[in-house]
What does this fold into?
Amino acid sequence: MPIRALLDKQQETEGVVLSPEDIAAIVAAYEAALERLKVADRKAPMALLVAKTTLQIAREGERDPERLCKRVIQLYRGR
It folds into this structure.
């Protein structure tokens, strides 16, 4: 799952400390976004893009899984 690897890398390289609740919220938003965007293959390039976008929005401070998911979806459905 790309989101786990990116979360680990972010914590190691950027010194970002996330609580277990934050991680659970980010992963839940990522999974929901993939489901709603109908991305079944977690190794697909789109899954990586969704993971990176989810993390970027989370870095801005959003931790609510539903709002985080909606923001990700808005970005990709608008294209």
